[in-house]
Design goal:
Blueprint: E1 4-7, E2 16-21, H1 33-40, E3 44-49, H2 58-75, E4 81-86, H3 88-99, E5 106-110, E6 129-135, H4 143-155, E7 160-165, E8 175-178, E9 183-186, H5 190-204
Parallel strand pairs: 2-3, 2-4, 4-5, 5-6, 6-7
Antiparallel strand pairs: 1-3, 8-9
Length: 206
């Protein structure tokens, strides 16, 4: 598919399938490649779709991505499906988890304030195993915004584990922001790679 990348682990039977959502930049699935590769090293298969927060059919695109994840997991006999989203993708991941309650067994929210996405109609809360990953140096989603989002989730009944990594907004997914291109690119900084490794293990609950 020209809008969905699949990252395969070397394990013959992947431990989990992860639907991994990028942030608000339209159709930036490539930004998630470093984190996706880190996750494959932990034995998971990753599906990273393009999506656009401003699309007229955003719900349809996210639903199609979830459908592909379900089909892929079924063909590979993978029983554990995780939905994870970075930045604005966190809001989309939460919406998917709630709108398709029978699909995902774990929800990973990464460096997000969980601001509602206008194109997505609110869905009733669906309580699943949830992890919230924040960067200690994140100035895009400050700690106070993360704490507010976590408190709101817990007030709704979610059991949220909170993981803080030593990184900024881009670093939590093993990237750095390129001012010239105005988008994230893979980082080679050992500290950033270590931070992203913690994010990956947190997504899978390891």
């Amino acid at each position: 598919m020209d809008w969905l990348d699949v990252y395969e682990p070397s394990a013959p039977v992947p431990a989990a399938a992860v639907l991994l959502l990028h942030g608000s930049g339209p159709n930036e699935r490539d930004v998630m490649a470093p984190l996706a590769n880190e996750l494959t090293g932990l034995g998971a298969v990753i599906l990273a779709p393009d999506w656009d927060v401003h699309s007229d059919d955003l719900a349809g695109r996210l639903g199609a991505a979830a459908e592909q994840a379900v089909r892929f997991a079924a063909t590979r006999q993978i029983r554990r499906l995780v939905v994870a989203g970075w930045s604005a993708g966190g809001s989309a991941a939460l919406w998917l988890s709630c709108s398709q309650p029978a699909t995902f067994s774990r929800l990973a929210l990464i460096a997000t304030s969980l601001q509602p996405i206008p194109a997505l109609r609110p869905a009733a809360a669906h309580i699943v195993e949830t992890v919230f990953v924040t960067g200690s140096a994140d100035h895009i989603v400050p700690a106070a915004d993360s704490q507010t989002a976590i408190a709101e989730l817990r007030a709704s009944g979610y059991r949220v584990s909170h993981v803080v990594v030593d990184a900024d907004h881009a670093g939590v997914i093993q990237t750095e922001f390129d001012e010239t291109r105005q988008r994230c690119r893979p980082s080679s900084d050992p500290a950033v790679l270590e931070a992203g490794g913690i994010t990956a293990r947190s997504i899978l609950g390891l």
